[in-house]
Amino acid sequence: MVRVEPVTDSDGRRAVLDGDLTFGTVASAYQQITALRPDLRVLELRDVAAVDLAGLQLLYALVGTRETPRPAMSLRESPAVERFRSMAAFCGLPALPETADE
Amino acid sequence: MSDSHDPLEVFREEARELLQEFEDSVIGLGEDPGDRELVNAAFRALHTIKGSGAMFELEELAAFAHDLETAFVELRDSGAAVSQRIVDLALSATDFLAVLIDGGIPDDTLRASGRAIVAELHGITGVHGDPPEGGGPGNESPVPPDAADAPRAVRGRYEPSSATFLVGTNPIALISELRELGDLTLMGDVTRVPEWEDFDPESCYMRWDFELETDRSEQDIRDVFMFIDADSVLALDGEDVGTAPSTGTSAASPPAIEAATPPAAPSDTAGTPATTSAVEGGGGATIKVRTDRLDRLVNLVGEMVSLQAQITLRATQLDDRLMQAHAEQLERLVRDARSLSMEMHMVPIERLFAPFRRTVRSLAAELGREAALEISGADTELDRNVVEQLRDPLLHIVRNAIDHGIESPEQRRAAGKAPVGRLRLMADYTGAMVRIRVQDDGAGLDAERIRARAVDRGIVDADETLTRDEVFRLIFAPGFSTAETATAVSGRGVGMDVVRRNIEALSGAVAVHSEPGAGTTVEMRIPLTLAIVEGLLAEVGDRLFLIKLEYIRECVDGAAATRGGQTGMIDFRGEVVPTLDLARYFGIGESEPDAPIIVIDASDRRLGLVVTRLLGNHQSVVKSLGKLLSGVEGISGVVFLSDGTPGLMLDVERVVRSSDRHPHH
Q1: CA geometry: angle at B394 spanning B393 and B397, to 5°?
Q2: What is the rounded radius of gyration, in angstroms, for the C-alpha atoms of chain A?
Q3: Highest mean pLDDT among B195-209, B247-261, B487-501
Q4: What average pLDDT does the segment A42-56 reach?
Q5: Fewer C-beta neighbours within 10 Å, C or N terminus of chain A?
C-alpha cells in the first residue's frame, strides 16, 4: 500500500509518500507521482516501512543520481531516504543526489 | 500487491516444493548412487532453501539447509558414490527441514536429532570443520572445496533481465551471497534507467560489474546465480555478454563499494511480488499466482459461460441477426477464456505421485517387504483441486497394495517371483477423464476369502450368485476388510469404502481388477476438471437433466430402436443393452415407448437411459446440491440453463450402480 499526496504549503509543490516503496507498490507510486507532475518539485518519504531495489530504481528515475541529477525533482531527507542510500551503497549503486533544502 | 499477499507464505510453498525435489533426488540416488545430476539437483534444492530462508531471517532453517548443502557439496566435488546410509540420513533430514519450513519450533529432541543427522552426514562425506551448531550462511567461514585454490580475482558482469523483479529474483540477495564468497567490489550501473515518462516501474534497468577476490571455484560463483531467469546474463572473466561494458557513475574510477552499512536491505522483503518463480529456459516466463485468485477466475469464467448462453438464447428469440453475430463472437471468446482458465487450473499429476516414492520406501521397510515404485504418465495434467482430493484415497490404495498385495521376499521367491515387488503408479487420459492406476505384482485378491468375509459381515447372502468381478467389488463395501489383524498401515476396515466415496465425490469411479498370483490393479477414472461440465441436456418428465458428455456413447431414436423380447432391453449395434427409464427411476412418471435413449458407458457397464426429450449440448458450472436435495440418489448437483431455469446434474455412476439393484425400472 502506498499513498502519495500533495502537501499544502507555501508553494504547493511538495508531496508526501506514505507506505511501502517496493516492487509491490512501485506501479501505484509511479502513477500517483505522475498525476502530480509537472508541478511537483520535492518528494518526502514519510513512514515508509519496506523498501527494495525496485523502489530505489524508481527514485533514480525520479531524481537521478548524485552525478547526474534530474534537477526538476529532489528528495527531502528522511529515515527512508537514508535506508535507500544504505541499500545503494551495499549494492554498489550510485548515490542518490543531495536532498532538498528545508 | 504486497498488501494482499504474504511473501512468507509464498516462500513456504516454494520451499515445500523444493524439499520435495530434494527428497526425490535423494530417493533417486538410493536407486542410482552414481548419478551426479541427482547430487546436483539435491544441492540446488538445498541451496535455494538456504538462500530464501536467510532472506526471510529463518536462521535455523537457513543454517540447517546450509549444513546439509555442505555435505552435498562435498559429495558433488569428491565424485563419491552415495551410500544407502547417506540416503537414509538425508531423508531423515527432510523431516526436520519440513518442520522448519512450516514455521514449527522443533523441540530439543528433534533439534538434537537434526544435529546428529548432519554430524553423521559430515562424518561420512568428509566435510571439514566443526559439526554444525547453528552455523550456516550467516556466520560461516567459507571453506573452499579445494583448499589448494589460491585467492584470485574473478571479474564478472551480472545483467538482470527486465523481468527480474517480476519473476521474483532479488538481486540484493545475490549480491549478499556473492559477498560471502570473498572480497567483493561492485560497480552498479543505473544509466539505463530512462526518463520518468519512459520509465516502467516494474522493469529492471540496473546491472552490475564486479570483481571478486576469492579462493572459491568458478562453479561456486555460478551457483549464486543458478536461478536467474533465462534472459538475465552472468558473464565471468571476459565472457561476452553481448553488449558493450558500461560503468555506472564514473567510468574512469568506478567506486569501490564496501558494505559500509550492514545489509539491511535484504531483509526488506515486504515487497516481494506475488509472482515469485524462476523462469524456465526455452518457454515463456512463468509466474506464480495465488490459488484463490485462480479459483475466482475459473468461477468468473464459469459465470460468463452461463451468461453467454443466455445472451445467445435471447439473440435467437429476438431473431436479431446483428445481435446473433455478436453473440457468436462472444461465444468464441468465452470458449477461449474457458479453455485458458481451465489450463491454468491444471497441474501435472507428478505433484500427487512424487511423495509416494518415499512413502513406498518407508512402508515397505516397515512391513518387511521389498518394493520398487515405478511412475508413468507423471506429466498427465489434472485440475489442481482434484489432485488435492486424490491424495488420501491414493495413499490408502498404495498402503493396501504393500500391506496386503505384495508378498514378503520369502513368499515371492517361493512363488517364483523376484524378491522385490513392483508397484506402479500410472496416469493417462481417456477422453475427458484421467485414468489413474495403482498396480502391484503381488498375490492378487482372494475371491473366496473376500466372499466369505462379505457373507460373514452380512454384506451378501451366502447363497447369492456373484461373478468374480462382483466379488472383487465387495472390497468397496462399507466396513469390509479381509485383514485378519488390522495393522497400523491398513486393514482398518474403512479404507476402500472411503476411497470409493471420495472418488465418487469427484464424479469419478473406481474399479478393481485382480489375477490370483499375478497382482491387483485399482483403477480410478476422474474428470479432468470439476469447474465446468459439458453435457447433454435432456427432459425427463417435466424436469431437466444434464448428463456429462464423457459418459455418452450414442443417442438412439427410441422409435427406431429394436427392443428386445423383454421390457428394458434394446438391440444396440448387435449388443443387447439394458435400459433404464429415468422418469420411473426418479418417480416422476413414465416415458413413452418411443422415447429417445441415451446409451452410456459407466462403471464398466453399458446402459440405455430413457429420457422424454433430447434438448442438445450445454455447458455449465455445477453448483452443489442444497440440503433438501443432497439425499436424493442419482443427482450430483444443480446446473442453471441459459434462461436461469435450474436443471439437475445426473450422477451417472450412481444411477448405473443402482440399476444393478433395481433392474426393472
Answers
A1: 90
A2: 12
A3: B195-209
A4: 89
A5: C
Task: Place B239 in a pLDDT band, splitting at 50, 70 and 90.
Answer: low
Core vs surface per residue B79-113: b (16+ CB within 10 A) or e: ebebeeebbbbbbbbbebbebbbeeeebeeeebeb
Nearest CA in chain B to A35: B197
For residue B65, which of B137, B123, B113 has the smallest C-alpha distance? B137
Weakest mean pLDDT among B156-160, B265-269, B373-377, B527-531: B265-269
Asked if ipTM goes beyond 0.90, one says yes
In the numeric block, the cell 496386503 is attached to B404
At residue B60's C-alpha, the angle toward residues B54 and B64, to 5°, is: 90
CB contact under 8 A, B271 and A37: no
Strand-pair category, B421-430 with B646-650: unpaired
**B273–A57 CB contact, under 8 Å:** no
Query: CB distance A53–B261 less than 8 Å?
Result: no
CB distance A23–B1 less than 8 Å? yes
pLDDT reading at B50 higher than 80? yes
Q: Averaged over B98-126, what is the pLDDT? A: 84
B96, β-bridge pairs = none
- One-letter-per-residue 3-state SS of B78-123: HCCCCCHHHHHHHHHHHHHHHHHHCCCCCCHHHHHHHHHHHHHHHH
Phi, psi (rounded to 5 degrees) for B251: -65, -35
Q: Is the separation of the CB atoms in B491 and B481 below 8 Å? A: yes
**What mean pLDDT is predicted for residues A19-44?**
90
* CA dihedral sign, ordered B654, B659, B662, B665: positive
Q: Are B358 and B398 in contact (CB under 8 A)?
A: no
Look at residue A29 in the predicted model and tell me its pLDDT. 93
Is the CB of residue B271 less than 8 Å from the CB of residue B2? Answer: yes
- Chain A residues within 8 A of B186 when measuring between CB atoms: 91-92
For residue B208, count other CB atoms closer than 10 A to its CB: 21
DSSP SS3 for B610 = strand
How far apart are alpha carbons B14 and B333 in whole angstroms?
34
pLDDT digits (tens, 9 = 90+) for B53-95: 777 778 888 889 888 888 888 877 777 778 888 888 898 888 8
* Neighbouring C-beta atoms of residue B305, cutoff 10 Å: 21
In this structure, are residues B145 and B77 in contact, taking their beta carbons and an 8 Å threshold? yes
- pLDDT 10s digits, B183-221: 999 999 999 999 999 999 999 999 999 999 998 888 888
Does an H or E element contain B153, and which? Answer: strand B152-159
In this prediction the pTM is 0.51
Does B196 contact A70 at a Cβ distance shorter than 8 Å?
yes
Give the Cα separation of B515 and B445 in Å (integer).
7
Q: Around Cβ B339, how many Cβ atoms within 10 Å? A: 11
Of all residues in chain A, the one with the smallest CA distance to B178 is A91
CA distance B296 to B302: 10
Does the bond joining A6 to the residue before it have cis omega, within 30 degrees of 0? no
Look at residue A57 in the predicted model and tell me its pLDDT: 96
User: In 3-state terms, what secondary structure has residue B231?
Assistant: coil
Q: What ranges make up the beta strands (E) of B481-564?
A: 509-515, 519-527, 532-540, 543-548, 552-556, 562-563
Minimal-distance CA residue of chain A relative to B171: A53
* Count, residues in chain A: 102
Cell 512363488 belongs to residue: B415
The alpha-helical segments, DSSP class H, found in B345-458 are 350-353, 356-367, 384-400, 409-414, 447-456
> A4-13, B193-202, B212-221, B326-335: which has the minimum mean pLDDT?
A4-13
- Section B241-248 average pLDDT: 41
Q: Contact, B243 vs B221, CB < 8 A?
A: no
State the best of B6, B191, B207, B268 to mutate against chain A, taking most chain A CBs within 10 Å.
B268
- How many residues are listed for chain B in this entry? 665
